[in-house]
C-alpha cells in the first residue's frame, strides 16, 4: 500500500480497521442477509460498498446541511452524460481509508483488489465529454465548491462491445443488474414533465395576457442521488440523475379507462425516455427520443433548482443568478434556457425582461466540438410538435435578439441569418449552439486552439457580436483516479520522492524533474512501468490467450473510433513496418506491441470497418512467423473507464494523431502523459499545450498544423498526388487492396482504400510521410532506455497543469464566481 493512500490514522473511530470490519459484518447481516460462507462475490463487493457508503454519507449529509444553512453560491453542472466509472476505489482513496479497508478485508480472508474488480461500471457516457463531467465533479468536491450535477439515469448505458469474426457487435449493457449501491433512491423528489399538445393564450385575473401549455403527455421524473466526495476533504457534491416513470393515476384510470393495453403502452412510452444512452460520439442523432431525453432532463433539473431556491432557501427568483451558476456541458442540455424562461414567465409570472436577465446571467455554455456533423440542430416540425411552448419562447428570444442585431448591423441580412436561432437555409431547424450562445453570459472552448477556431470559424459571428463572451478553459483530468487509483506503483514512487500533497496540488510534480538525473530513481521509474506491463501481459495471456512481450514498446491508441481520430493512419504505419520486415528492411527495429481500444457508433459504417481492419491486420501479422514477434497488434474489446485505468499506466507511447483542427481537446492525451507515456501527436486540441508544457524534446510532433490544413484545403487537396509521390505508401495500399489482410477478398477494405486515395476527408495521406518518419525517431529514442526514461519522468513532472483542479479553479473564477466552503465533520 503506497504511503499516500494511507490517509487517516487508525485511531479515528469509524474509519479504523476494526470499525470497518465490524461495519462490514453488520452490512452483510442487515443488507445482504446471508452468512459469509454463502455470499457470492457480488454480495461481498456490495457489503463493502455499503460500508464505505456509510462513511461517505456522514460527510454528504454534513455538506448538504452546511450548504442549506449558509445559503452558499452553488454550481449546477448540466450534462446528458456523466461517465463516472467504478466508484469503490476512488471513494476509499478520497476518504483516506484504503489501508484500513485492505487490512480489514485481509482479516476477513478477503482480497480487496478482487472486490474492487467486481464492480460493474455505470457506462453513462460515450467518451470524452461524459468523462470530463465526472472528473469535474471530483475536482468540484476536492476544491470544496458547493455543486450539483444534473443528468440522466439511463437504464442501459454504453453498449458492451464484443468482437465477433473481427467485427464489432453490440450487446446491451445492464449495469443495474446487481443493483447500484452508490445511489440513493429519492421517490419524494419528483417532477412532472410535459410533452406535445398545444398552447393557448388567456387573460389572468389582473387582465394580463398569459400562455398555458396543454400537454398531450406527462411523464414523471424521479431523482436518484449519488454523493461524490472530494479528496482528503469532507465536502461532497451531489450527482442527481433523473429516471422517467409513467405518472400515477394516468395508468389505469381517466382517459384510459377500459383500455388496459393502451394504458400499458403509454407507460412503456414514458419509461422509454431514460431507457438507453445514445451511443453517438461527435455526431448528432436527430432522433425524437433523444430530444425527449434532453428536455426531460432539463425540465426536471430546472424545476428542482427553482424549487430548492424558492422553497428551501427563500430566494427571490429575480435574484437567482446571485445564488447559483449553471454550466451547460455542450448544447445537449441547452433547452434549459427556454425552460427556465417558461417557468419564470408562465408559472412565476415574472415579466420577460427580468426573466431574460436572470436566465442569461445564470447560464454559461461549454462547446466541445467543431465538427459540423456534431453541431446540434433539430427539425422545426419535430421540435414544435414535442415542445410547442418552447418553440414560441425560442421565436420570441430570436425576434428580440435579431432586432438588436439589426440595429448594430443595419442591412446585413447575411449576418442576421447566421446569428438566427432558426436555420432557414433549406428545411427549417432550431440551432442549439446559437440558442446556447444567446442565452449564456460566457461560452468556453476546451483548449486554446479549439477556442481560437471557435472564435474564427464556428462561432465567428457570435464572437464579433460579443467580443468578450468566448473564453478558453483547457480541459483537465483528475489525478486521483487517473494516477492514484490506476497507477499505485507510480503514486508510491512519486510520493517517496517529493512527499504527499501533490495529488491535491499537481504543480508540485515539478519537484520530480530533478530526479530525472538520478540513475537509481530512473531505474525505479522504469521498473514501475515494467511491472505494470508484466501484470497486464499475464492478464492478457490468462483472459484472451494473447502473447505479448513486456520488453517491447507498448504503443497505445485508445479512444472512440472515428475517422478524424485516424486510427487507420496508425494502421498504415503498422503495415509499413510489416512490409519493411517482409522485405528484409529494418530487421533490427525495436519490437513493438500496438494496442487499440475503442467503440464505434453502431450506425457508423466506416468506424466499424476500421475495427475490422485493425483486427484483420492483427490476425495476419500476429501469426506470421517471419515477423518473429517484432510486431504485435492487439484490439482490446469493450474499452471503458475500467480498462482505461489499466491501460494508461502501461503505455510507453501515446498516439494522439487526429487531423489538426478536429479534436477539440482530447483528455486521454493527458492521462497517458501523466503516467509517463511519451506522446506522438499532431498539433491538435490540447496536444499543443501539452507539448508546450513538457517541452519539444519530449514530444514527438508530426503532420500539418491547423493552419496548413486550411491552406491545403483552400488550394484544393488531392490525396492521389501524395499517393503517387510515395512508393512505400503505394506498396502499403496495394498490399491492402490485394486482399492480404482479408483472405484474398479485394472488396472488403475497398471503401477504406478508395476513400483514402480519392477523397481522404481527414487527410491521412498528406500526413503519412511525416508520421512514418516521426515514428522512426520514436523507435530510435526508445532504443536508448535511459534517455527515454528521463523524458518519461520529465513529461510526468510537467503535467500538473492538466489536473482538472486547475480547470475547475478557472471555471470558478472566470465564469461562476464561486468560493470554497468549509465542511466540518465530527465536531
Ligand atoms: C448529440 C445529439 C444527439 C445524440 C448524441 C449527441 C452527442 C453525444 C455525445 C454528441 C457529441 C457527444 C460527445 C462529444 C465528445 O465527447 N466530445 C469530446 O469532448 C471532450 C471533452 O471536452 C474533448 O476532449 C474531445 O476532443 C471531444 O471530442
Polypeptide structure, described:
The chain is of the alpha/beta class. The longest helix is centred in the first third of the chain and has 30 residues, at 41-70. It is globular and about 90 Å long. Bound molecules: ligand 26Q. Ligand 26Q is lined by residues 126-129, 132, 278, 280-282, 284-285, 290, 332, 368-369, 374, 376, 446, 475, 663-667, 685.
Briefly summarize what is shown:
This protein is α/β, with parallel strands linked by helices. The protein is globular.
Secondary structure: elements and pairs:
Blueprint: H1 17-32, H2 41-70, E1 74-78, H3 88-95, H4 98-107, H5 112-118, H6 128-142, E2 147-152, E3 160-164, E4 167-171, E5 184-195, E6 198-203, E7 209-214, E8 217-229, E9 236-246, H7 260-272, H8 288-312, E10 324-329, H9 336-347, H10 352-362, E11 363-366, E12 377-379, H11 380-386, H12 388-408, H13 413-419, E13 422-423, E14 429-431, H14 432-438, E15 442-445, H15 448-458, H16 460-465, E16 470-472, H17 479-485, H18 488-498, H19 519-544, E17 553-558, H20 567-582, E18 592-597, H21 605-622, E19 631-636, H22 641-647, E20 653-656, H23 668-674, E21 678-681, H24 687-694, E22 699-701, H25 706-715, H26 719-725, H27 727-737, H28 750-758, H29 764-783, H30 785-797, H31 804-816
Parallel strand pairs: 1-2, 1-10, 2-9, 10-11, 11-15, 15-16, 17-18, 17-20, 18-19, 20-21, 21-22
Antiparallel strand pairs: 3-4, 5-8, 6-7, 8-9, 12-14, 13-14
Helix pairs in contact: 1-2, 1-4, 2-3, 3-17, 6-31, 8-9, 9-10, 9-12, 11-12, 19-30, 20-21, 20-27, 20-29
Amino acid at each position: 500500500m503506497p504511503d499516500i493512500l494511507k490517509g487517516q490514522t487508525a485511531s479515528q473511530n469509524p474509519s479504523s480497521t476494526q470499525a470497518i470490519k465490524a461495519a462490514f459484518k453488520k452490512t452483510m447481516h442487515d443488507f445482504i442477509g446471508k452468512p459469509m460462507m454463502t455470499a457470492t462475490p457480488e454480495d461481498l463487493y456490495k457489503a463493502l460498498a455499503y460500508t464505505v457508503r456509510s462513511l461517505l454519507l456522514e460527510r454528504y449529509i454534513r455538506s448538504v446541511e452546511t450548504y442549506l444553512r449558509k445559503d452558499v453560491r452553488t454550481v449546477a453542472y448540466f450534462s446528458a452524460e456523466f461517465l463516472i466509472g467504478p466508484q469503490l476505489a476512488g471513494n476509499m482513496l478520497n476518504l483516506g481509508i484504503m489501508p484500513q479497508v485492505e487490512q480489514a478485508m485481509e482479516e476477513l480472508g478477503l482480497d480487496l483488489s478482487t472486490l474492487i474488480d467486481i464492480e460493474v461500471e455505470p457506462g453513462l457516457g460515450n467518451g470524452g465529454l461524459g468523462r470530463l463531467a465526472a472528473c469535474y465533479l471530483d475536482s468540484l468536491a476536492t476544491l470544496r465548491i458547493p455543486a450539483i450535477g444534473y443528468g440522466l439515469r439511463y437504464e442501459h448505458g454504453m453498449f458492451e462491445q464484443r468482437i465477433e469474426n473481427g467485427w464489432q457487435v453490440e450487446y446491451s449493457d445492464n449495469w443495474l443488474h446487481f443493483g447500484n449501491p452508490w445511489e440513493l433512491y429519492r421517490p419524494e423528489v419528483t417532477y412532472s414533465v410535459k410533452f406535445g399538445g398545444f398552447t393557448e393564450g388567456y387573460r389572468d385575473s389582473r387582465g394580463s395576457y398569459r400562455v398555458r401549455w396543454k400537454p398531450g403527455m406527462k411523464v414523471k421524473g424521479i431523482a436518484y442521488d449519488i454523493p461524490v466526495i472530494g479528496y482528503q476533504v469532507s465536502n461532497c457534491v451531489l450527482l442527481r440523475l433523473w429516471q422517467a416513470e409513467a405518472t400515477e393515476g394516468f395508468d389505469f384510470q381517466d382517459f384510459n379507462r377500459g383500455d388496459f393495453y393502451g394504458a400499458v403502452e403509454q407507460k412503456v412510452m414514458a419509461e422509454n425516455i431514460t431507457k438507453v444512452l445514445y451511443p453517438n460520439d461527435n455526431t448528432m442523432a436527430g432522433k425524437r427520443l433523444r430530444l425527449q431525453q434532453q428536455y426531460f432532463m432539463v425540465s426536471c433539473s430546472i424545476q428542482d433548482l427553482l424549487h430548492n431556491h424558492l422553497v428551501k432557501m427563500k430566494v427571490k427568483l429575480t435574484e437567482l443568478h446571485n445564488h447559483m451558476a449553471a454550466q451547460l456541458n455542450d448544447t445537449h442540455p441547452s433547452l434549459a434556457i427556454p425552460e427556465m424562461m417558461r417557468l419564470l414567465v408562465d408559472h412565476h409570472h415574472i415579466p420577460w425582461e427580468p426573466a431574460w436577465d436572470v436566465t442569461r446571467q445564470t447560464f454559461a455554455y461549454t462547446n466541445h466540438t467543431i465538427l459540423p456533423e456534431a453541431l446540434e440542430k433539430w427539425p422545426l416540425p419535430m421540435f414544435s410538435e414535442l415542445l410547442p411552448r418552447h418553440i414560441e419562447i425560442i421565436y420570441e428570444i430570436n425576434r428580440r435578439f435579431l432586432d438588436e442585431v439589426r440595429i448594430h448591423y443595419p442591412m446585413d441580412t447575411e449576418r442576421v441569418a447566421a446569428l438566427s436561432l432558426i436555420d432557414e437555409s433549406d428545411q427549417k431547424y432550431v440551432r442549439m449552439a446559437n440558442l446556447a450562445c444567446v442565452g449564456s453570459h460566457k461560452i468556453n472552448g476546451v483548449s486554446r486552439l479549439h477556442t481560437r477556431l471557435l472564435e474564427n470559424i464556428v462561432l465567428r459571428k457570435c464572437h464579433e457580436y460579443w467580443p468578450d463572451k468566448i473564453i478558453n478553459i483547457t480541459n483537465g483530468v483528475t489525478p486521483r483516479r487517473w494516477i492514484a487509483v490506476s497507477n499505485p506503483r507510480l503514486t508510491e514512487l512519486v510520493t517517496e520522492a517529493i512527499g504527499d500533497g501533490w495529488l491535491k496540488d499537481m504543480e508540485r510534480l515539478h519537484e520530480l524533474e530533478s530526479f530525472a538525473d538520478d540513475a537509481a530513481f530512473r531505474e525505479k521509474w522504469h521498473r514501475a512501468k515494467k511491472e505494470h506491463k508484466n501484470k497486464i501481459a499475464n492478464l492478457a495471456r490468462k483472459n484472451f490467450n494473447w502473447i505479448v512481450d513486456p520488453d517491447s514498446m507498448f504503443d497505445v491508441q485508445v479512444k472512440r473510433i472515428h475517422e478524424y481520430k485516424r486510427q487507420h493512419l496508425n494502421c498504415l504505419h503498422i503495415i509499413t513496418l510489416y512490409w519493411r520486415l517482409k522485405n528484409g528492411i529494418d530487421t533490427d527495429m525495436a519490437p513493438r506491441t500496438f494496442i487499440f481500444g475503442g467503440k464505434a457508433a453502431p450506425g457508423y459504417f466506416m468506424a466499424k470497418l476500421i475495427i475490422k481492419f485493425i483486427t484483420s491486420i492483427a490476425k495476419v501479422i500476429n501469426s506470421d512467423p517471419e515477423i518473429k514477434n517484432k510486431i504485435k497488434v492487439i484490439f482490446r474489446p469493450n474499452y471503458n473507464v475500467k480498462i482505461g485505468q489499466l491501460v494508461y499506466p502501461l503505455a510507453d507511447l501515446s498516439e494522439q494523431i487526429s487531423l489538426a483542427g478536429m479534436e477539440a481537446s482530447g483528455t486521454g492525451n493527458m492521462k497517458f502523459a501523466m503516467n509517463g507515456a511519451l506522446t506522438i501527436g499532431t498539433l491538435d486540441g490540447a496536444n499543443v499545450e501539452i507539448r508546450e508544457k513538457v517541452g519539444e524534446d519530449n514530444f514527438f510532433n508530426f503532420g500539418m498544423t491547423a493552419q496548413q490544413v486550411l491552406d491545403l484545403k483552400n488550394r484544393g487537396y488531392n490525396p492521389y498526388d501524395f499517393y503517387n509521390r510515395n512508393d512505400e505508401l503505394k506498396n502499403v495500399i496495394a498490399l491492402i487492396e490485394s486482399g492480404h489482410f482479408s483472405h484474398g477478398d479485394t472488396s472488403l477494405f475497398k471503401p477504406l482504400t478508395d476513400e483514402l486515395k480519392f477523397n481522404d476527408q481527414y487527410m491521412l495521406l498528406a500526413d503519412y510521410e511525416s508520421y512514418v518518419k516521426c515514428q522512426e525517431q520514436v523507435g530510435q529514442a526508445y532504443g536508448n532506455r535511459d534517455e527515454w526514461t528521463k523524458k518519461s519522468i520529465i513529461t510526468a513532472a510537467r503535467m500538473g497543469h492538466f489536473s482538472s483542479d486547475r480547470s475547475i479553479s478557472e471555471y470558478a473564477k472566470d465564469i461562476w464566481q464561486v468560493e470554497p466552503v468549509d465542511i466540518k465533520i465530527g465536531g
